Amino acid sequence: MKILVGQVSPVIGDVEGNEARCLEAIAAARRGGCGLVVLPELVLCGYPPRDLLERRDLVDACMEAAGRLAAQSQGLILVFGTPWRDEIGLRNSAVVAQDGVLVRVVHKSLLPTYDVFDEHRHFMPERDPQPVQLPGLRLGVTVCEDLWNEPELFPNRQYELDPIGAMVGCDLLLNLSASPFHVGKGRTRLALVRKQAADAGAALVYCNAVGGNDELLFDGQSLVVQADGRLLCQGPQFQAALLEVELGGPTVPFHAPGFEEEVHGALVMGVRDYARRCGFRQALVGLSGGIDSALVACLAVDALGAENVLGIGMPGPYSSEGSVVDARRLADNLGMRFELLPIDGVFQAHRQALAPLFAGLAPDVTEENLQARARGTTLMAISNKLGHLLLTTGNKSEVAVGYCTLYGDMCGGLAVISDLFKTDVYRLSRWLNRQGERIPPSTLDKPPSAELAPGQKDQDSLPPYELLDELLRLYVEELVDPDELVARGFDEALVRRVVRMVVVSEYKRWQMAPGLRISAKAFGSGRRIPLAQRWHLTRSLAGR
C-alpha cells in the first residue's frame, strides 16, 4: 500500500485554513496514487486549542469540516484528527473515512495531564479502544499519547489502559500526533515507534504536526516503520511536507541533527510562526552589543528576513564605546536596519524626578533598573508606533535567577531564548559563525555585562556561567533536591544562594513574555510553581 503522510502545519482556530491544508494533502495523494492519507491530531482546530474548546461554535465548525473532508475520500482511505462531540462529551478524535463515507470516529484513550498537557480539562477518554475493520484491511488507529504507554521506555508514565495492546492483530497501525518538541526528542520517538510496532506485529505510521503555536514548537519528523523496526520514512524537521511512502519499500537512515542545528531550526520556526500567526511582519530587537541580543537578532533575521528586523542601540551612562561598535557591526553583518537612541537624558530625568523622595538614600539596584526600564519604555514606544513585534533577549540562566528587570529588558511579546542557558547561547552563537562572521568576535570574547554600573560584569553578581548552568540544569530541569546537589559536590553556600534566587524570582517569570520551549522543562505552562510559598526557602538543606 502506498501512503501519504500529511505532515502539515495547522493554525489554532483557523478551521477553514486547516481544512484547506487537508484538502491539499488529499489532492497530492490522488496525484501520487496513494490509497491512504494520514493527517495529525486535532488538525482541524490546531493543537493545543486549550479553552477555545469551550466555544461550542469552534467544535461545531470542526465537526462540519470533518463531514466535508470525509466526503472527499472517494477512492482512498482518509484518517484525520478533530474535536468531536458525542453523547459522552467532547472527544479528541480521529475520523476514518473511505470512498466518501465517514466510517468510524475513533477517540483518544490516554489524556495526558503532565507538563504542558491538560487534556482531561476538556476531553472524555475512550475506555474500550478497538481496531477499525475496513474491507480487506484491519486498522489500529490511535492518537498521540495512546502510543506513549511503554513501561520499558517510560517507567514513570504508566496508564491502566494499553491502547496499542488492543491493536494486536491489525494489518497496520496509525498514530495521529501533535507531539511538542524538545531537544533530542526525535530519537526517543523512533525508539518508541519501533518498540510499539514490534509489540503489535504491524507496520506503524506516525504522523506528527509541525509548526509553532505560542510557546510550543512541533517539529514534524513523522515516521513510518515496518514491524521489524526498519525505517521506511522520516519527515523533515520544522517544515511541512507531504510524504509518500510504500509499505515494504526501501529503508532510509535516521537523521539526528546536532544540538546547534536542531535548536536553531526550532527557534527560527518559533519566531516566524509566532509573528505570522499573531499578525506581525516585522520585529524589533534592542541591541546592546552583548551576546544575547546578538543571537536574538540573528534568529529574527533568519526567521523574518533582514529587511523586516529593526535593531535599536540605547547606550546609557555606563555603556562602553565597544558595545555600540559591536551592535552596529552586528547589524551591518546581518544587513538589518540599526538606529542609535541614547537613554542618558531619559535616565537623568527619572533620577531628577525621584530625587526629593530618594534624598539621603544611597544609589543601588534601583538606579540600575531605571536604565533598563528607560530602554524598555523606548522599545515599547517604537513597537507601538511602528507595529513591530518586540523580541526580548533574556536567556534561561538570567530568567532562572532573576538577573533581569521587569518592565525593562523583560519588555516584549516573545522571549526567544528564555529556554536556552547562557553557555548554550555561546555554543549556538559560535555555530552561527561557522561559515563566516555574523556575530562580531569581540561580542563572543568579552565578559558578559549588563553595563548598568561602572565596570559591571555578570560575574560580580553571579557564579561563573559554566557552574551556574550545571547547577540550574539539575535543580530546574531534573528537579534534583538541594541536599542532593550538595551530596554531588556543589558548594553548600552556592546551592543555598542559587536556590533562593530561583525561588524568589518566580514572580518575574509569571510576568514575562511567552518563551519558546526547547527543553523538557521550560519556564512556561509546563512549570506551575506558586508565588507565595516557602519550600526550599525555609526547608532546603535541612539539618545541615
Model description:
There is one protein chain. By secondary structure, this protein is α/β, with parallel strands linked by helices. It folds into two domains: 2-249, Carbon-nitrogen hydrolase (Nitrilase/N-carbamoyl-D-aminoacid amidohydrolase), CATH 3.60.110.10; 263-461, Rossmann fold (3-Layer(aba) Sandwich), CATH 3.40.50.620. 35% of the residues lie in helices and 18% in strands. A six-stranded mixed sheet has the order 5-4-3-2-1-14, covered by helices on one side. Strands 6-7-8-9-12-13 form a six-stranded mixed sheet, with helices on one face. A five-stranded parallel sheet has the order 17-16-15-18-19, with helices on both faces. α4 (259-277) packs across α5 (291-304), α5 (291-304) packs across α10 (422-432) and α7 (344-358) packs across α8.
Short recap of the structure:
By secondary structure, the protein is an alpha/beta fold. The protein is built from 15 helices and 19 strands. It folds into 2 domains: 2-249, Carbon-nitrogen hydrolase (Nitrilase/N-carbamoyl-D-aminoacid amidohydrolase), CATH 3.60.110.10; 263-461, HUPs (Rossmann fold), CATH 3.40.50.620.
